TrEMBL record:
Signal peptide residue numbers: none
Residues in coiled coil: none
Descriptive protein name: Bifunctional NAD(P)H-hydrate repair enzyme
Gene3D superfamilies associated with the record: 3.40.1190.20, YjeF N-terminal domain
Enzyme Commission number(s): 4.2.1.136, 5.1.99.6
The keyword Transcription regulation is assigned to this record: no
Amino acid sequence: MRPAWRVADVRAAEEALMARLPEGTLMQRAAAGLARRCALLLEQVYGAHVTLLVGAGNNGGDALYAGAILARRGAAVTAVLLDPAKAHEEGLQALRQQGGRTADNPPATIDLLVDGIVGIGAKGGLRDAAAAALHKATDRGRRPTIVAVDVPSGVDVDTGDVPGKAVQADVTVTFGCLKPAHVVGPAAPLAGEVELVDIGLRPWLRADPAVLVPDRADIAEALPKHRPTDEKYTRGVVGVATGSKTYPGAAILSTAGALAGPTGMVRYAGTARQYVLQAHPSVIATDRITDAGRVQAWVIGSGLGTDAAAATALRTVLATSLPVVLDADALNLLVDGAMADLMRGRNAPMVLTPHDREFARLAGEAPGPDRVAAALKLAAHTNAVVLLKGDRTIVATPSGTAYANPTGSPALATGGTGDVLAGLLGSLLAGGLRPEVAAVTAAYLHGLAGREAARHGPVAAPDVAAALRPVLADLASPDAAAATHK
Ligand SMILES: NC(=O)C1=CN([C@@H]2O[C@H](COP(=O)(O)OP(=O)(O)OC[C@H]3O[C@@H](n4cnc5c(N)ncnc54)[C@H](OP(=O)(O)O)[C@@H]3O)[C@@H](O)[C@H]2O)[C@@H](O)CC1
Ligand SMILES: Nc1ncnc2c1ncn2[C@@H]1O[C@H](COP(=O)(O)OP(=O)(O)O)[C@@H](O)[C@H]1O
Ligand SMILES: [K+]
């Protein structure tokens, strides 16, 4: 897992580390890493045109020192100082010593633009002067490559919110550790590719990380391995109570998701039985949950409806002592609080899988700018693991741990993909994974499947279910456990 820390924790670690080092050491380390990446992005450093947007703090200092290194190697470096009186003095001196210059406006030619406007000291969206300079530097025939220093300026570093104008970077070079804005919320895609430069901070980061990001090896390790002694029941059986006469597609899609998972059998219980059997002959299907036979976990909700029969189905599932995935209409049925006693009485794990509108109905308010905090709050309140869907799906546990999925793809923004996710998640739960591990694994695989499906053209939900197979095959290959997230 790759951890991300909040600003206050980064500041505390920085202070502890700086106390043992000569002044300026950390900035030198940061600037060296930044300059190295900038040089790699330029075809040739000598003669390249580099512009630095330099703000009032140390973020601008990093940019100036990196600019000095590039200028020493022959780049034509121009610094646009957004607040000349507050620009990092020693950094500016270093740049000038290497032949760099300052200008009021971005020059006509820019190969590489370095965003040193603001880093972890940011408050609110980009200020007008910074936004205007950014506009002048980027709104031109050939947009320069943009490297953000530490974070793309204008984002909220702790939440990943983007409250106003912000930089869209191609690459972000960050120092010491990841921050939440690199991995959650609308800020994450603005960071582009994120490179973490080691400045020696890690041993001093003593607080719990704000959020954890799984990589490929984590997922490969979490997946249950088939054993030669296995038979269908030892691999776990998942029960799927989804769909209805009105929405049979949801039943087909959630069972498709479940069939791609690790369990040895999928049981379906509901009024879309005939449709499910037609689509998936290996499913054992009944009309009612009470007739379904033994399972190790239930998935309930997608396309179920919210009528009396749906409420009875939900009560039946909640009354079991089995792990349960609550999706879509099952979440809507929880809103009026009629099931609150049943929820409270449960010892077995529950995973709630809301999208933003379902979250708002359930929590009484939209997730808002801090999606991690919102998901954690609902998880604590319901004593369930919450999987809050989105580009960077969040998984939050009642005990306060949060994960951010890195594999999301906009290709998944199409009807029915959530049903596939719920089925897969149920299978992972029935396969014996802890609920948060099942949720993180399902979101990761689902995102990869969205990407895989998108390689072949426009994506519909059945394509995502089908793409889970090559994705799982790839992960199960012997070298997957050693690989890191690409
Ligand atoms: N931590 C570490 O280990 C290391 C940290 N390092 C580096 O230091 C950086 C943090 O530096 P920092 O503390 O000086 O703050 P920083 O982000 O430059 O911002 C300061 C100024 O920006 C302004 N400003 C605020 N909001 C704004 C907005 N929305 N739009 C425009 N401007 C805005 C505001 O100005 P003011 O209000 O004062 O006029 C404020 O004073 C960090 O990100 C990393 O790059 C590395 O060198 C080494 C190791
Ligand atoms: N822009 C996006 N980028 C990445 N993933 C997305 C995006 N939009 C939606 N998704 C994913 O697609 C799925 C949609 O689920 P959901 O909203 O429940 O759809 P449905 O109810 O139609 O099945 C979720 O897994 C969500 O994380
Ligand atoms: K920046």
